[in-house]
Amino acid sequence: MGRVEIRAITKLFGEVRAVDHVDLLTNEGEFLVLLGPSGCGKTTLLRMIAGIEEPTSGDIVIDEREVTHLPPRMRNIAMVFQSYALYPHMTVFKNIAFPLRARGVDEESVRKKVDWAAGMFKIGRLLDRKPRQLSGGERQRVALARAMVREPSVFLLDEPLSNLDALLRASAREELRQFQRRVGVTTIYVTHDQVEAMGLGDRIVVMSQGKVRQVGTPLDIYQWPADTFVATFVGSPPMNLLDQGDTLLGFRPETFLPADAVEGSEGIVTWPFEVTYLEYLGAERLVYGNVGEKSHARHVAARLPGSMNLSIEAGMTYPFAVARGDLRRFDKKTGLALPGGTT
Amino acid sequence: MSAPAHAAPPPHVADYGGITDREGALAKLMIAPAVVYIAAMIGAPFVLAILYSLSDATTGDPALRLVGLQNFRAALADPVFRMSLRNTFVFTLVSQTIVILLSRILATALLKNFRGKWLVRFLILLPWTAPISLGTIGWLWMFDSIFSPMDWVLRYVGLLGTKDALFGFQTNMYWLGIPGLSMASVILVQAWRILPLATVIQLAGLSSIPKDLLEAAEVDGATPWRRTLMITIPLTLPIVSIAFLFGVVFTFTDLVVVYVLTRGGPVHTTQVLSSWTFFKGIEAGDLAQGAAISLFMFPVLAVVAVFILRLARRTEVV
User: Fold this and answer.
1) Where in chain A is the domain with CATH 2.40.50.140?
2) Which CATH superfamily includes the segment(s) A237-331?
3) B222 contacts A85? CB cut-off 8 A
């Protein structure tokens, strides 16, 4: 249970292609993250899976059943909204019971299931409160419990952590991941936060301008970006791209290090690195500067571990290098990755 | 030498005590015109009405000679007064129930986007912008005993004027001439008049519901009917109540519709407290009686006002 298949989905808002011919297939019990900048169509895609938005063309299949034109209540999905969308006039108990009562579950079972869901998210003592009496973290738990309670075959989550403060977000992320593993329900999670995406996803779908740019594990996405968009959207600072005529040469800032610190079985590539600016961030040091001939794309960043005690000053030039195995090449015109990374 | 920190403030700071810097005094000054206005235009007439109701004043002799509760006793003994009292409640409650139902339908329709929405909105608001008396005169023609266009339509579609027509064999309905029908006509016009205000209020209420909530309910499996019952109605209840209570106040005290359409007739079957007050106190000249009748409206309006004030504090949705 819990396979979502998206076939050639397109959604037009007037002239705007919000979602442009997207194909996608989830694995059973998978945690799939839709990642992209705001306006890339990820939320629209999620809303079409939920049934709140109707696609302009294409099909949605959930558990072998075509649901493209079915209303949300006939899809057996649950969704957590960015705002949580708790019913403000109902107590926490009634909020969680709402999906059950909407399906005509008898009161005895409603009470049991609500207690079970509340126990799972440790909100048993909040059942008599109204949403406005809850903190952000508590609201998020209530929203999850409400989505959970009727055991859907697919969970849809629309940036559920974005309203939490940074500290809470980290612990909520961990809890969410553990909870998803425990119940094993296929989950589609929308976020614009790459840290969330990398940390949570079994696989990540990177979207931009309504199109899927790459689908892959966090490792794939980071190590082998399919194009320059993914290369620069994922990672902070983003992948360095050096202009080399017809191609762009890419390497991650943490692979760009002082020449004597770099080793590579396939050899290394060394450049004189003209340092312009430094940021000391505690655990690491970011060094910005220019390499190679004067051209448009020669500004790069290096990320040095904080433990590397090396004196570097702005205005000086140092020999820096990248292992050949860490180099990626992209077509300058199309932006697509070229096979075989090394020069 | 004393410490310079404790020295007197420089001279130009000393003259700060102007009225514009003293918020307490400024607030009183700013609110004064409103207080004076309410005292002069509402407080004074109200006190005067109480005094008149306890006197035997007439328009010819407005001198105050107190006669106790005699006017109230006389009013209660008067069958026309009792009928007006009953009519006022019927007129108000029925018209406002219609208004709340229709305005919810209109507001729901106006939430959606469709071609010509601006025109529909304009037409709905039109009755509110027209002077009441002019609008009501328009209706007077519509209800005309001989030339009523509504009768033409009914005759044209065969509901009136033939032997086995639904509304009878007579050629006209006589909207304002038959007791039950005249009350229905007055109620219809009053509902038409209040509808725009109620629609605007309901529209504000409906659009204040976050879209997420309705979508969440949809995903949670609620049918459209259940969403309305469990989400929309409870969340808009405070603001709908305000629309209802405003309508009650406007209708309970209204004189124009009844005065223009029926003058309380036929045989006082559409007489309401405000029109009876006017006929008794002004046209018939018995100021004291008129004042006493009008004061019967006070307890109802006071209760409604309390409800409005309490609801206004609760209208925030989240």
Assistant:
1) 237-331
2) Nucleic acid-binding proteins (2.40.50.140)
3) no
**B24-59 pLDDT per residue, tens:** 888 889 999 999 999 999 999 999 999 999 988 888
Given B220, B231, B318, which is nearest A99 (Cβ)? Answer: B220
Q: CA A328 to CA A305: how far, in whole Å?
A: 22
Say if B261 falls within a structural domain.
yes
CA distance B318 to A85: 11
Q: Cβ A99–B221 below 8 Å, yes or no? A: yes
How many A-B residue pairs are in contact by the CB < 8 A criterion?
61
pLDDT band at B137 (very low <50, low <70, confident <90, very high): very high
Q: What is the number of structural domains in chain B?
A: 1
Residues of A in contact with B314 (CB under 8 A): none
Which long-range contacts does B308-317 make (Cβ < 8 Å, 24+ apart)?
B308/B242, B308/B245, B308/B246, B308/B249, B311/B238, B311/B241, B311/B242, B311/B245, B312/B242, B314/B238, B315/B238, B315/B239, B315/B242, B317/A88, B317/B208, B317/B209, B317/B210, B317/B235
Chain B hits for A98, Cβ within 8 Å: 217, 220, 222, 230
> Contact A85/B230, CB-based, under 8 Å?
no
Smallest Cα distance from A87 to chain B, Å: 7
Per-window interface: B 233-252 vs A, CB < 8 A: 234-235
The span from the CA of B55 to the CA of B74, in Å, is: 13
- Cα diameter, chain A: 75
Domain for residue B108, yes or no?
A: yes
Which residue among B221, B222, B317 sits closest to A88, beta carbon to beta carbon? Answer: B317
In this structure, are residues A14 and A60 in contact, taking their beta carbons and an 8 Å threshold? no
Q: What is the ipTM of this complex?
A: 0.84
Residue B60, domain member (yes or no): no
CB contact under 8 A, A87 and B217: yes
Per the document, the length of chain A is 343
Do B210 and A83 make contact, defined as CB atoms within 8 angstroms?
A: yes
Per the structure, the complete domain to which residue B277 belongs is given by 77-312
For residue B89, what is the domain's CATH number? Answer: 1.10.3720.10
Domain A4-223 CATH assignment equals 3.40.50.300 = yes
A4-13 β-sheet, strand order: A16-25, A4-13, A57-62, A65-66
Q: What is the pLDDT of residues B77-87, one digit of tens each?
A: 999 999 999 99
To probe the interface with B, which of A67, A76, A101, A110 has the most B CB atoms within 10 Å? A101
Closest approach of chain B CAs to the CA of A105, in angstroms?
Answer: 12
CB B219 within 8 A of CB A87: no
Q: Rounded to a whole number, what is the distance in angstroms from the first to the last CA of chain A?
A: 46
In a domain, B219, yes or no: yes
Residue A172 has pLDDT above 80, yes or no: yes
